[in-house]
C-alpha cells in the first residue's frame, strides 16, 4: 500500500516514515527541504532497510504535486508538511497562512482529482487555545489560538473537515500532538533546530553537549507543583506509531475523526531537567528567568480515546525520551551536516 508522506524529511515525518516502513507500507515522501536535510532520506532508508521514493516538491506547487500523484498509485496521505515556529508565525503571519493553508488546500484538491480519499493530518494541541478544563479532551471547544501557527492548524482542521463533508467517500483523521520530543533509539534521525532552539528538549540537549551554557527556565511562579510550566511530552517514536494506528483505522472508516496523541501525563520543566540528568548521568545547569510571553501554565492530554478507538498508547517514558535525545545529540553534534 502506497502512502504519500508530506514533510517526510522533517523531524516528525522522518520518524513516521521509519514506522510506516516497519509496518509494511511503501512510502513516497514529498518535502521542499526548507527545514530539513536531504541526508535524512538516506538515514530513513538505512533504518527502514528499503528504498523510499523522495521528491523535492513544495506541497503548494500543484503541478509538481500532481506529477507525483501521476507517477504513484497513492492509497493514503499523511500530511506533515508545514511551518511550525510559534514566534516566527507572529512575525510573519501571512507567510504562515499562505504556506500552511495553501499546502492543505492544494493537497486536498490534488487528492480529489486523483480519487485519493484518505488523509491523516498533523495537528497540534495548540488548537485548544487557552485551557477551558484539564486534561484536554477531543470534544472540547477549540480556539481561539494564541498565535498564527496555531490558527493555521485549527483552520486546516476545518478545511479538511469541510472537504470530507462534501465527499462522503473520504476518511480524515486529525491528530493533535502534544509535545513531541526524543529521537529514534538508533541515534540516526532526530530533531535539529536551526539556530538557538526555542523548545525545551533541544535546548537541554545543546546545554548537555556544551554548545549552550545553561538552560533558562521561563518562570517558576506558575500555579503548578514546582512553579514551572507543565506539558505532556511524548516520545516521537510513540507519536509515529500513533500515525500507523490512525492510518489503519482510516482504511476501515469514512468521515472525520480526531485524536489527541499524548501520554496523558503532565511533566514540569524541572521534571524534564531531572529526568535528563538521571537518564544520562549529566548535570544540566539552569537559571530561572521571567515567564515567556504567550506561554500557558499547564496542559496535558486525555489520551483515552486513542487507546479505546485506535488501540494505541504511549510506551516510552520521560527517561527514554531523554536518553534517546542525548544519544542523537552526542552522535550528531552538527545534525545531518557530517
Ligand atoms: C510549543 C508550541 C506547540 C508546539 C511545541 C513543539 C504553542 C502555544 N506552543 O509548545 O504548538 O507543538 O512547541 O513541541 O503553540 N521552556 C523553558 N525554557 C526554554 C524553552 C521552554 O523553560 O528554553 C518551557 C516553556 O516555558 C514551557 C515548556 O518549557 O513551559 C515547553 O516549552 P516548548 O518546548 O517551547 O513547547 P510549548 O511552548 O509547550
Keywords:
alpha/beta, 11 helices, binds uridine-diphosphate-N-acetylglucosamine, two-stranded parallel sheet, 338 residues, 7-stranded parallel sheet
Describe the fold and architecture.
The protein has 11 helices and 13 strands. It has helices at residues 11-22, 39-48, 62-71, 86-91, 93-113, 148-166, 200-208, 236-250, 269-280, 304-310, 318-331, and strands at residues 2-6, 26-31, 53-56, 76-79, 118-124, 171-177, 179-181, 215-218, 230-231, 233-235, 255-261, 267-268, 286-289. The strands form 4 sheets. A 7-stranded parallel sheet has the order 3-2-1-4-5-6-11, with helices on both faces. Strands 7-10 form a two-stranded parallel ribbon. Strands 8-13 form a two-stranded parallel ribbon. The model has no long low-confidence stretch (mean pLDDT 97). The protein is α/β, with parallel strands linked by helices and 338 residues long. Helix 1 packs parallel to helix 2 (39-48), helix 5 (93-113) runs parallel beside helix 6 (148-166) and helix 7 (200-208) packs across helix 11 (318-331). It binds uridine-diphosphate-N-acetylglucosamine.
Amino acid at each position: 500500500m502506497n502512502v504519500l508522506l508530506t514533510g517526510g524529511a522533517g523531524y516528525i515525518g522522518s520518524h513516521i516514515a521509519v514506522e510506516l516502513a516497519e509496518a509494511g507500507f511503501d512510502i513516497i515522501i514529498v518535502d521542499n527541504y526548507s527545514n530539513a536535510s536531504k541526508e535524512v532520506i538516506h538515514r530513513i532508508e538505512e533504518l527502514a532497510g528499503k528504498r523510499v521514493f523522495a521528491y523535492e516538491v513544495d506541497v503548494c506547487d500543484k503541478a509538481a504535486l500532481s506529477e507525483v500523484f501521476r507517477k504513484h498509485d497513492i492509497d493514503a496521505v499523511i500530511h506533515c508538511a508545514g511551518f511550525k515556529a510559534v514566534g516566527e508565525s507572529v512575525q510573519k503571519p501571512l507567510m504562515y497562512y499562505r504556506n500552511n493553508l495553501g499546502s492543505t488546500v492544494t493537497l486536498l484538491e490534488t487528492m480529489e482529482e486523483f480519487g485519493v480519499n484518505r488523509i491523516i493530518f498533523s495537528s497540534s494541541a495548540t488548537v485548544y487555545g487557552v485551557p477551558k478544563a484539564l486534561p484536554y479532551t477531543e470534544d472540547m471547544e477549540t480556539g481561539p489560538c494564541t498565535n498564527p501557527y496555531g490558527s493555521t492548524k485549527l483552520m486546516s482542521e476545518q478545511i479538511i473537515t469541510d472537504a470530507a463533508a462534501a465527499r462522503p467517500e473520504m476518511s480524515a483523521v486529525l491528530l493533535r500532538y502534544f509535545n513531541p520530543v526524543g529521537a529514534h533509539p538508533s541515534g540516526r534521525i532526530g530533531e535539529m533546530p536551526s539556530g538557538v532552539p526555542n523548545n525545551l528538549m533541544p535546548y537541554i540537549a545543546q546545554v548537555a553537549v556544551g554548545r549552550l551554557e545553561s538552560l533558562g527556565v521561563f518562570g517558576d511562579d506558575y500555579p503548578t507543583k514546582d512553579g514551572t510550566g507543565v506539558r505532556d511530552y511524548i516520545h516521537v517514536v510513540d507519536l509515529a506509531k500513533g500515525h500507523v494506528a490512525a492510518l489503519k483505522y482510516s482504511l476501515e472508516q469514512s468521515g472525520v475523526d480526531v485524536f489527541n496523541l499524548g501520554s496523558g501525563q503532565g511533566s514540569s520543566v524541572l521534571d524534564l531537567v531531572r529526568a535528563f540528568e538521571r537518564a544520562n548521568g549529566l548535570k544540566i545547569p539552569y537559571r530561572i528567568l521571567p515567564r515567556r510571553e504567550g506561554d500557558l501554565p499547564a496542559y496535558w492530554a486525555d489520551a483515552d480515546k486513542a487507546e479505546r478507538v485506535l488501540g494505541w498508547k504511549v510506551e516510552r517514558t520521560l527517561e527514554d525520551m531523554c536518553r534517546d535525545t542525548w544519544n542523537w545529540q552526542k552522535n550528531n553534534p552538527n545534525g545531518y551536516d557530517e
